[in-house]
Design brief:
The chain is built from eight helices and seven strands; from the N terminus they run βααβαβααβαβββαα. It is α+β, with helices and mostly antiparallel strands. It has a single domain, classed as Phosphoribosyl-aminoimidazole Synthetase, Chain A, domain 2, CATH 3.90.650. It has a seven-stranded mixed β-sheet with strand order 2-4-1-5-3-6-7. β6 and β7 form a beta hairpin. The chain is globular and about 55 Å long.
Length: about 210
């Protein structure tokens, strides 16, 4: 893990990695919010503001082999407001799923949410790009803090929006759960099988197929 003294990248022993360990207690594990959506027809909301913050991101590392630059801004007040909203939404049972955007950004979080239970999504990012003045790359891959995607049953929309407004958390409807494909309007469509193959095939691509003993 990040606290190991044996990790290294090439000739560099360990990249500077501040680590904060946080332990939470859930009184009843049955009340937890899952990381993926299970039902079709729920609205998908992006909480928080997306900035053009790609330095140090998974996108920068994977696509450009670059790990330098300035990390995303940390806004403790925004983080606290978001955490309070999610907890309140959980207590009111109006949030069907929630996923952070810290590792790969919006598109990675949506992909993992689709894979969790095999329920697809239709997504649109034009309004997000206009509101936050970003391009498609930042919309998909930015790892700005104090953000999360949640799915909300349509019958709970009014209560959820009121909760966001009351706590001062920016929100934007960016999609709906539907079918089994991941479709991003005017961008691309990926089938569930394509997502699964990519998600599960990393080790095989790097090390070759697993051979039974």
């Amino acid at each position: 893990g990040n606290v190991s003294f044996y990790n290294q990248t090439g000739d560099v022993p360990i990249h500077p990695t501040p680590v904060v360990a946080v332990l939470g207690v859930i009184d009843d594990v049955a009340d937890r919010i899952p990381s993926g959506w299970q039902d079709e027809g729920n609205n998908i909301y992006l909480l928080g503001i997306t900035r053009d913050e790609l330095d140090g991101s998974a996108w920068a590392g994977v696509i450009h082999s670059h790990l330098g630059g300035r990390p995303p801004i940390v806004d403790f007040a925004a983080e606290q407001a978001l955490a309070g909203l999610i907890r309140s939404g959980s207590e009111q049972n109006i949030i069907a799923s929630a996923h952070d955007l810290s590792d790969g950004g919006l598109i990675q979080a949506v992909s993992e949410s689709v894979l969790r239970f095999g329920v697809g999504a239709r997504l649109w990012i034009t309004e997000l790009m206009e509101r936050d003045d970003i391009d498609a790359t930042a919309a998909f891959f930015s790892e700005s803090g104090a953000r999360m995607i949640v799915s909300v049953p349509r019958e709970d929309d009014v209560r959820f929006i009121g909760l966001c407004e009351g706590r001062g958390v920016p929100f934007l409807r960016v999609g709906v759960t539907d079918g089994t494909d991941l479709e991003v309007q005017d961008q691309f469509t990926l089938t569930l099988e394509e997502l699964r193959e990519t998600h599960r095939g990393t080790l095989a691509r790097h090390f070759g197929p697993v051979v039974g003993s």
